[in-house]
Amino acid sequence: MKTVFAQSRPNRQGVMPARPASSKFSGVTAAMFLPEELLRKTPPALPQLAELDVVRHFTGLSRLNYSVDGNFYPLGSCTMKYNPKFAEVAAALPGFTAAHPLLAQLPGGEDMVQGSLEVIWETEKLLCELNGMDAFTLQPMAGAQGELTGALLIAAYHKAKNNKKTKIICPDSAHGTNPASAALAGYEVINLKSRDDGLVDPDALAELLDDEVAALMMTCPNTLGLFEKHLPALVQKLRAVDALLYYDGANLNAIMGRMRVGDVGFDVVHLNLHKTMSTPHGGGGPGSGPVGVSARLTPFLPGPRVVKNTGSADSTFALNYDLPQSIGQVTPFYGHFGVYIKALAYLLRLGGEGLSRASDYAVLNANYMRKRLENHLAVPYSDLCMHEFAASATAYEASGVRALDIAKALLDKGYHAPTIYFPLIVKECLMFEPTETESKETLDRFCDDLLNILEQARKDPDALHAAPVSLPVRRLDETRAAREMVLSDEL
After folding, report:
1. Which of 473, 418, 479 is nearest to 74 (CA)?
2. Average pLDDT, the chain
3. Structure confidence at residue 176 as a pLDDT band (50, 70, 90)
4. Average of pLDDT values for 144-151?
C-alpha cells in the first residue's frame, strides 16, 4: 500500500473553509513566538491530496489492522482477550478526561479531583482484596516497569534491614523480563532449572539458597501453563534465609477469584491491567503494571500515596508525600489513569463471582484446545493445564516444517499466530492461550484449520515454507528485516 507521500500530486488539496477576516488569530504567525533560528526557511514538504484520497488511505490502513475485536488471538502468555466496551465508556467520562494531572498539586486542587483520587484509592483497595496484599501502587505504566519497581522494593526492604543481598533467582520458565528487571535493580541473576514435569523443584531451590539471595521471581501458573503445587515448600525455604517471593502477574487470568497470591506466601506482585482487566494492548501500549506488597514492604512504596481522611463528616481523599522510606516516584503523575479506570469498571461489574467464572472459562478453554491438539502436536507436559499450554512441532522437523512455518500458515487462515519458541525449554514451541472470552465455535474452527495445516505439513511441506501468501507482506528474512528495515514503498 502506497504512503500518502507517494500518492501526492502537485496542487491537489482538500477543502478548507476560509478563516474569517475578523478572527482573533488574524495576522498571528510563528515568528511572533519562536526565535528566528527555529523557523523554517522553506515550507514543509507535506503531501498534497484531496480529502477523498486521505479518507480512503486511512480507511484502507484501518482494514489492515489486526485486532481482537475482529479476529482470534491465541497468543500464549499475552492474554489477548476481548475487552468489553462499557469500560471504555467509563474511562471517557468528561470528569476524568478533562482533569489535568497537575491539578491536584495546586493550592485547593485536591478538592477539584476528588473523584479521580477516589478511583485510585478504590482500585488499590480492590486489587488488595483480589490478590491478598496489604497495599498497592498504581504508578508503574507497564508490566516490565512494575517488575523493576517490585525489584527495587525488595532491595529497599533488605537495605532497611542491613541484609547483604546480591542475588535474585529466576526459574528457566520465567518471563524474559524477570531476569532483566532483577539485573536492572543491581542483582546477580541465578537461573533455576525446572524439573522434568515443568515445575520448580524445592530441592533444587534449596541448593541455590544462601544468605545473599534476596528473592525468587516466579509466576503461578508458570509460563508452561502449569500450577506450581510446591509453593508451600518453596516459601518455607525462602523464609529460612529472609528471601522474598515475587509474583509475576502475567498469568493472573488463570486464578482471579480462585487464589490470592498473598495468602500463599508471595510478598510482591505486579499485575498487567492491560492484559487481565479490560484494556486493549499491543502495539506499544497503553499499559499499567500496578505493584502490590505485603505489610512489611508497604513503607517503601512509591509516592505520593492517596489517603482517605475520615475525620470529617464528608470523607475526602488527599495525596500523602510524607513517606520517608519510599523508593520515590517511578513514573510521571500517577500512572496510566485511563487504564485503571477501566480496571475499576471491570472489577465492579464482574464482582467476585464474575472474576472466578472468567478464570474457570479460561482454564476450560485451554484444556479443551489441548485435548483437541495433543494427538497432532506433542504436548510435553500432559497434565491438566491452566489458562495456556505449550506444544511442540518437533514431529514435523523431518519434513522440514518448523513452528515458524505453522505460525505463518495460520496467518493465511485469518488468525494471529500463537507464541512460538517461548518458553525456550520447549523445542519448536507453540504456546496457546485462548482466554475465557472465546466461544467453543471459535476454538473448534481454529483447531480444525490448524489440523488442516498439520496435514499439509505431512503431505506438502514445501507449501508451508511460502506462507503467508494472502497478506500484503510475504515471508520475511527475520534477521534482515530487523537490521535492514525498508521504510519506504519505493523499492
Report:
1. 418
2. 93
3. confident
4. 97
Cα atoms found within 13 Å of the Cα of residue 318, Cβ hemisphere only: 12
Residue 229 CA: distances (Å) to CA of 23, 123, 386, 461: 71, 30, 12, 40
Query: Within 10 Å of residue 71's Cβ, how many Cβ atoms?
Result: 13
For the record, the C-alpha cell of 467 comes out as 506462507
> Which of 183, 145, 130, 188 lies closest to 327, judged by CA?
145
Is the Cβ–Cβ distance between 359 and 254 less than 8 Å?
yes
Name the strand (E) or helix (H) holding 445: helix 440-459
Is 87 within 8 Å of 346 (Cβ atoms)? yes
Q: For residue 263, give the DSSP letter.
A: G
Residue 37, burial from CB neighbour count under 10 angstroms (0-12, 13-18, 19+): exposed
Q: Which residue has the cell 546480591?
A: 166
For 374, half-sphere exposure in the C-beta direction (CA atoms, 13 angstrom radius) is 14
Local structure of residue 77 (DSSP, 8 states):
T
CATH of domain 86-349: 3.40.640.10
Domain residue limits, the chain:
86-349
- Residue 471 to residue 474: CA distance in whole angstroms: 6
The residue among 276, 274, 292, 293 whose CA lies nearest residue 284 is: 274
**Residue 397 DSSP class:** G
Q: Is the peptide bond before 423 cis (omega within 30 degrees of 0)?
A: yes
pLDDT at 455 over 60: yes
- Given a contact cutoff of 8 angstroms between Cβ atoms, the answer to whether 403 and 60 are in contact is no
Rounded to 5°, the CA angle 182-166-139 comes to 35
Let me know how long the chain is.
491
Nearest to 418 by CA among 41, 149, 77: 77
Grid cell of 385 as nine digits:
493445564
